[in-house]
Design goal:
The structure holds two protein chains of two kinds. Chain A has 13 helices and 18 strands. By secondary structure, chain A is α/β, with parallel strands linked by helices. Chain A has a five-stranded parallel beta sheet with strand order 4-3-2-5-6. Chain A has a five-stranded parallel beta sheet with strand order 16-15-14-17-18. Chain A has a four-stranded parallel beta sheet with strand order 10-9-8-11, covered by helices on one side. In chain B, helix 7 packs across helix 8. The chains are: A alpha/beta, B alpha/beta. Chains A and B meet through helix 2, helix 3 and helix 5 of A and helix 5 and helix 8 of B.
Chain lengths: 421, 170
């Protein structure tokens, strides 16, 4: 029976020759992830699974990133809970603040912890990011993460898929964020509910790995179980460069069955913005009108990688952030922070009038480091613009690319770089 | 098992950020979370909801984050069941894992109004609007799921079963 990429990975991890959509399988896990918000709940549930130790202390990643560096006493207690568990269990991949730290979904690929063909669960909805590397990865809750940590297995209902055929190459100042926002705008926030988004086509090769991470990351915003790209030469090069384990490359069968096919011509995409309060509420920047803004956030597991910072710095170089705007730049990992410093990007940001933060999820989920007051508007390179997401219930978040975010910070209104064609 | 309660009604795409805003995720304590449940779309909810009440909502309930704190907060408020036209997948899995009964029923989600008295029979899947007399059919819970809910979630259920096995109870 013909299978999709996702189905082949699940079959391999369930020890089956083939699986079909709707089938329930028990799959072996290559990595189980949790963070400072979800791990404490998982650690509380862990003893109930009857195992004293985790299934493999090298296949668990615990990352303090959401409210770390600790934002308050309660957050400190949550981080301390996870740190104690990591030490007691001898968890190899615990990443302390300041030392090899970072936002989990930027950090794990950077550390080479995910390879093509892997089956990964994480107690964070954006765990789907690793689909950029040709892995099956999906978000689960804390109880499932606890079960995964105890047994090294998880059950899944095998998903059907939407095939997203990408063609052409994006124009200057247009990238993965615009493509994924455009797609979510087309199919809606539950358009891929319970399904895989499988990205294929000639256009894939025109997208950088960072663009692909952005797109796979936001698959969940269309309700998808996972988003996945073929592990092509660029992906294999990335895996090699980051010391990942030996990849297993799966391609969809030519006659695999899809729920539907969506075609996107990357060359026709415009800088795209998701207006409040859903990621599917998209407009091109030309359709945005004059929306004045109070804050810009450039960072997160969606767009805090080095190429995102390069693009933002290029859009901002030699200019100043508008006096009415606070612009907060958050490199997603310590390594990206250092690289941005060495490339002079942090200097560009600081000279333009930006705050540059240590890695944290912070403002993306309304934790800290950039909370919005009543009525304030923010352009963010993050992934959600739900009611109250970044602060006051009457504040607004507009999702956009690093190029649009940087240009908007300078202009004080939502806009694209001047020479966006 | 049958439950009966008053309905709190919401629309489509009720996301996990409004179910429990992230600013309160610095604690895993269900009671503390419950105090802020639905705060950003219904500020009075946590004060007015009573044990046994029912949430009815539209499509894609629980979309967004994987935070298990969302169903935990709803359950700790005393909500006995969430009925929606559809659920986001991570929320669906989390709700059952922590023992919060949820039912997919587009017909009930469309018709049942706020304040109505509704009963839900988990064994038959029948949802009855006592205020209007209408009833709706949803998928009933299989026996193991009823046991899981009664145990208070997956981990408790497995833990109890393991103890039964160890004590020689089948």
């Amino acid at each position: 029976m013909a299978m999709t990429m996702t189905q082949k990975i699940l079959a391999a991890h369930a020890g089956k020759r083939e699986v079909h959509a709707g089938e329930l399988v028990q799959a072996r896990l290559d990595l189980v992830l949790a963070n400072d918000i979800t791990a404490p709940v998982a650690i509380g549930e862990f003893p109930k699974f009857g195992r004293a130790d985790v299934f493999d202390r090298g296949k668990i990643a615990l990352v303090p990133d959401h409210f770390a560096p600790n934002k308050d006493v309660k957050a400190a207690e949550q981080c301390a809970c996870m740190r104690r568990f990591a030490r007691r269990q001898g968890i190899v991949n615990y990443f302390e603040v300041g030392q090899d730290c970072g936002v989990e979904h930027a950090l794990l690929p950077e550390k080479g912890l995910v390879t093509a063909g892997d089956c990964v669960v994480g107690a964070d909805s954006h765990t789907c990011t690793y689909g950029a590397l040709g892995a099956f990865s999906t978000g689960v809750g804390s109880t499932d993460a606890a079960a995964g940590m105890a047994t090294g297995e998880a059950w899944f209902r095998v998903p059907s898929a939407i095939r997203v055929v990408l063609a052409g190459a994006p124009r200057r100042w247009v990238g993965g964020k615009d493509a994924i926002l455009h797609l979510i705008g087309l199919i809606g926030v539950d358009g891929a509910r319970y399904q895989s988004l499988e990205f294929v086509g000639d256009g894939v090769s025109a997208l950088s790995m960072d663009d692909r991470f952005t797109m796979a990351n936001m698959a969940i915003e269309a309700g998808a179980k996972n988003g996945i790209f073929p592990a092509d030469a660029a992906a294999l090069g990335y895996l090699h460069e980051h010391g990942a384990r030996k990849p297993a490359v799966y391609e969809a069968d030519p006659d695999a069955v899809y729920e539907r096919t969506v075609e996107i011509d990357l060359s026709s995409l415009r800088p795209t913005v998701a207006f409040p309060h859903l990621p599917s509420n998209t407009r091109t920047v030309e359709e945005a009108g004059d929306v004045s803004i109070d804050q810009v956030v450039i960072g997160s597991c969606t767009n805090g990688r080095i190429s995102d910072l390069r693009i933002a710095a290029a859009a901002m170089a030699g200019r100043r952030v508008a006096p009415s705007v606070r612009c907060i730049v958050i490199p997603a990992t310590q390594r990206i922070w250092l690289q941005a410093m060495e490339e002079g990007l942090l200097k560009t940001f600081a000279e333009a009038g930006c705050v540059v933060s240590t890695p944290t999820c912070g403002p993306c989920l309304g934790g800290y480091m950039g909370i919005l007051a009543k009525g304030e508007r923010c352009v963010a390179t993050t992934n959600r613009n739900f009611v109250g997401r970044m602060g006051h219930v009457e504040s607004e978040v507009y999702l956009a690319s690093p190029a649009v975010a940087a240009a908007s910070a300078v202009a004080g209104i939502i806009t694209a770089p001047e020479d966006a064609t | 098992m049958k439950i009966r309660g008053a309905v709190f009604k919401y629309g489509d795409n009720v996301d996990t950020d409004v179910i429990i805003p992230a600013r309160y995720l610095n604690t895993p304590d269900p009671e503390e979370l419950a105090a802020h449940c639905m705060e950003d779309i219904d500020a009075g909810f946590a004060r007015s909801v009573r044990r046994g009440d029912i949430i009815v909502a539209g499509r894609n309930f629980g979309c967004g984050s994987s935070r298990e704190h969302a169903p935990l907060a709803i359950k700790a408020c005393g909500v006995a069941c969430v009925i929606a036209a559809s659920f986001a997948r991570i929320f669906y899995r989390n709700a059952l894992n922590i023992g919060l009964p949820i039912m997919e029923c587009p017909a009930a989600a469309e018709v049942v109004a706020a304040g109505h008295e509704v009963s839900v029979d988990f064994e038959t899947g029948v949802i009855a609007d006592m205020t209007t007399g209408e009833s709706f059919a949803a998928e009933p819970f299989p026996p193991f799921m009823q046991e899981l809910i009664a145990a208070g979630g997956l981990a408790n259920y497995l833990s109890a079963r393991r103890q039964d096995l160890e004590e020689g109870v089948s």
